[in-house]
Model the fold of this input.
Amino acid sequence: MGGPNANWNRSRDEKLGEKSLSKLEPSGVPLKEDDIEKQKVLTVTYHPNTKYAWATGVAVGEFLKGLKAGVITGSKCDECGRIVVPPRLFCEWCFRRTENWVKLPDTGSVNTFSVSYITADTTRVKEPLIPAVIEIDGTSGAGFLHFIGGVKPDQLKIGMRVKASWVDASKRQGSITDIKHFAPSER
Ligand SMILES: [Zn+2]
Done:
């Protein structure tokens, strides 16, 4: 390679020499877990007090407000008439703004589900969690993600009718967990 840096590079490599290049390993003594646990080295324990707050946005705000009141809220597109849940501010089919909030029933059918013997933090559990995509009645093409409860995994079926099981009104916080789970129901 030519250019203004060619000589500089060559002289640097000559100084290092091939032998020293192959020995460019970090020097010093590596730390072991034991060194930290037994405090053989100086350690600092720090519990950061990190709290975050952020705006939910218009559509999700409407959805969470509804949950607190025990209602599942969707949005309807005035162009194609499609209702989706959770609500959103636009219809991606028509590229139109949608601010037509609709109250939906808290019933639907199981679109798909999974039986999981580990929790989100990878802890093993004996009673499996059953996350599912639920098609809320009156909506189309918008799956609602939640847990199924009150049913044995081998009794689960795609298309099974389910109904929301709500947290007591006084304890609702305007969160998706205001619905405990969806449980099998008769139509
Ligand atoms: Zn539309």
